[in-house]
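Quick one, tokens below. Sequence please?
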């Protein structure tokens, strides 16, 4: 992997290019967040309603370990990305150790291994096990095994220093195994910057990791809460000062539009798209008015996102796509319900939309979020479970062109879905949040791309105003 930094003046922007010359991504930008190889609440098929997906998808070891196993991948001769069917949406894959949304439990980590919570059990991962899994999955980029200590952990400074020592030892072992593994010669290794909430340990981690032959640097366990953003920025600035300028810096964890602006200012290049998922899981909609069509990217298609983006295969027209989104449900017989069927309808199947079918399958009880919010709402976040939206029939965000808003989803409708625990509500929110989040990052890239300092500052101040809700784009 080669990182081509195109500007050091003002805000950093560049391109990350693979060993085969393929464009992994432009920076500032984000990776496509997945869990167990699937974009949460969307899946592979619904991704076709997006025309602006990142070219680099993120897979976490914690959510995908042994799903499938290394033996299965080797037998099928498929990469993780090919196995999950993500190749037609994102050409390249990045593997992180921990899921950026889930707070890593550092108490199970040991000197020789890292503990991860998989879907079925807790697994102890040594550098040898980790690298054998990377050999089987063959990602384009992967983070080295690391002892993640979250900033929220009630740990002493000594534990912060230990996380650095363990991570550096893991990194050295991973780099040596990478060197002698032919299957991984085209895969790039990213070093993890650890140290918990202690700036001195983060700085030492950055300084020592920079001495190793890594392709980039990932900041792990830096959880942004209600009042610690500036503290995190100060720590990042001190650590980044020890890193070379010509390698990318990755920030793992949910970052709101407001957070992104501050983190880009201090030198972060790449984010993950876990923030839209965190909001959708908690029934929250993103409400920002992004400048229209940044970088010339077209809007997503109409008709509920049914028009497919050409991905190299045969295109399907709108009628065919809409037909695919119909579910035929047979009505129960009169014997089963004790009443006679309506006249003229006996034995005839009734067509129901995918929304109706998913609503019937979902529980009538209010869903418990998989990952609850750990902070209060920002000005650009709407909690749709709030009673004020029960009769609010306005759209989620002004002039939004996402599949959900094109479908006519209103705040009142999604308020109903959120309070009834309907699964389709999370899907609609995820479509909306992800679309706006990607559009916002495109606007950030466009602002950083400006060669005129005055224009760049003006564009940046406008983005600040947008996230504060003081102006319309």
């Amino acid at each position: 992997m080669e990182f081509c930094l195109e500007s050091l003046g003002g805000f950093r922007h560049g391109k990350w290019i693979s060993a085969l010359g393929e464009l992994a991504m432009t920076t500032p930008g984000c990776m496509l967040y997945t869990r167990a190889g699937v974009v949460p609440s969307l899946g592979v098929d619904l991704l076709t309603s997006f025309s602006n997906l990142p070219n680099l998808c993120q897979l976490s070891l914690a959510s995908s370990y042994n799903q499938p196993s290394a033996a299965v991948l080797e037998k099928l001769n498929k990469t993780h990305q090919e196995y999950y069917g993500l190749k037609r949406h994102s050409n390249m894959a990045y593997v992180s150790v921990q899921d950026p949304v889930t707070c890593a439990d550092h108490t199970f980590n040991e000197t020789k291994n890292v503990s991860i919570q998989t879907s079925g059990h807790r697994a102890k991962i040594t550098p040898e096990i980790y690298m054998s899994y990377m050999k089987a999955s063959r990602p384009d980029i992967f983070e080295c095994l690391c002892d993640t200590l979250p900033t929220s952990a009630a740990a002493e400074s000594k534990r912060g220093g230990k996380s650095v020592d363990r991570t550096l030892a893991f990194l050295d072992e991973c780099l040596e195994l990478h060197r002698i593994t032919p299957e991984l010669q085209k895969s790039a290794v990213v070093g993890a910057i650890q140290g918990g909430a202690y700036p001195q340990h983060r700085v030492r981690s950055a300084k020592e990791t920079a001495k190793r032959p890594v392709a980039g640097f990932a900041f792990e366990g830096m959880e942004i809460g209600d009042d610690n953003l500036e503290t995190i920025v100060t720590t990042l600035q001190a650590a980044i000062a020890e890193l070379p300028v010509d390698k990318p810096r990755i920030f793992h964890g949910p970052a709101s539009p407001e957070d992104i602006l501050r983190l880009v200012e201090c030198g972060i290049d790449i984010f993950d798209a876990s923030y839209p998922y965190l909001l959708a899981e908690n029934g929250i909609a993103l409400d920002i008015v992004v400048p229209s069509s940044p970088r010339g990217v077209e809007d997503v298609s109409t008709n509920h996102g049914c028009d497919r983006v050409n991905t190299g295969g045969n295109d399907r027209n709108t009628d065919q796509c809409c037909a695919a989104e119909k579910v035929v449900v047979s009505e129960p017989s009169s014997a089963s319900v004790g009443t006679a069927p309506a006249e003229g309808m006996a034995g005839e199947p009734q067509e129901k939309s995918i929304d109706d079918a998913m609503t019937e399958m979902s529980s009538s009880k209010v869903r418990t979020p998989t990952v609850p919010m750990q902070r209060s709402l920002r000005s650009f976040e709407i909690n749709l479970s709030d009673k004020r939206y029960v009769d609010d029939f306005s759209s989620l965000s002004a002039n939004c062109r996402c599949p959900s808003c094109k479908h006519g989803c209103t705040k009142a409708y999604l308020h109903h879905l959120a309070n009834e625990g309907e699964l389709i509500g999370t899907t609609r929110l995820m479509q909306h949040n992800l679309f706006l989040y990607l559009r916002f990052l495109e606007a950030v890239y466009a602002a950083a791309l400006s060669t005129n300092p005055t224009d760049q500052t003006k564009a940046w101040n406008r983005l600040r105003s947008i996230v504060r809700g003081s102006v319309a784009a």
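The longest helix spans residues 423-449. The chain is about 35% helix and 15% strand.
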